[in-house]
Amino acid sequence: MRLSKPVSVSIVIVGIVSAFYGIEAVRVRGEAGGLSRSLTPTYWVDRATGKDLFNPEKRIWYKGVRERKEVCITFDDGPHPLSCRSLLATLQEKHVPAVFFLVGKQVEGNPDLVRMIAEEGHEIGNHTYDHIRLNNLTREQVYDQISKCESAVEKAAGRKMVLFRPPGMKYSDDVISVVNQKKLILMEYVLGAKDFVGSVTKGELTAEQQKLPAVTSDYVVESVIKQLRPGAIILLHDNPVTAAALPKMIDMVREKGYEFKSAKDMMYQLPQQVQIDPNPVVTPTNSNQS
């Protein structure tokens, strides 16, 4: 059976559009969070409106502007006495800003390190008090985990926090609800070096993570460079292996033509500017006021 010319043309057009859509979906699958998500119309609607970078309704920041060769470096799970000072020394020497997502329990044991992070001009984010997954907790438990970390940082360094990252990037509608109530911004990431292997207890790792190779400083550097892309938020961890990798990693990222930016600066450069003061100073209360 021969098809009419208009039908044939339509089939060709649909085929071309479908092929283009598939190619684009494969190309952006990493930044979209997986191939299945990159194939959904929702992702492309979000991309067209800028919500794939920052979602104002959910207060989630996913990445920086993809046309700018800039990255934001973040360190989770600290502060750790065996590595935090080394990280700070390298960042200071190479003039690189960073975001430190701190765990409340670690803050209480190392308040001097929290003060150093703040005094040296880095941004501090909330990573809960106990570093437990939030997606299966009640709303009240989520609120408590975030609030207890807030209190620990305020006591240690006299600073509030706006940026928040849930452990394991596991979050639920209740977590988003608390984030909105507290006027926080949930900060995602684009690339991670999986540098937590060997630095956390085996019970915190999934079965797949336990199969990963032992992490070395060269592995951390290679992992970051391999995944590097404009606007990336880089997820690293406060541990000795990463501290050893950091100087070489910074140099190689710069050799690729990238600049390191603070979260505040990268968010301000988004198509729909987001302005934040990441760590406002805590205003002391006067108990004598009536």
What does this structure look like?
It is a single chain. With 290 residues, the chain is an alpha/beta fold. It has two domains: 7-49, no CATH class; 55-268, Glycoside hydrolase/deacetylase (TIM Barrel, Alpha-Beta Barrel), CATH 3.20.20.370. 45% of the residues lie in helices and 12% in strands. It contains 13 helices and ten strands. It has helices spanning 5-27, 29-32, 35-38, 41-49, 84-94, 104-109, 111-119, 139-157, 173-181, 207-210, 217-227, 240-255, 263-268; strands spanning 54-55, 60-61, 70-78, 98-102, 123-126, 163-164, 185-187, 191-192, 233-237, 259-260. The strands form two sheets. Strands 3, 4, 5, 8, 9 and 10 form a six-stranded parallel sheet that branches. A hairpin with a 4-residue loop joins strand 1 and strand 2. The longest helix has 23 residues, at 5-27. The mean pLDDT is 86.
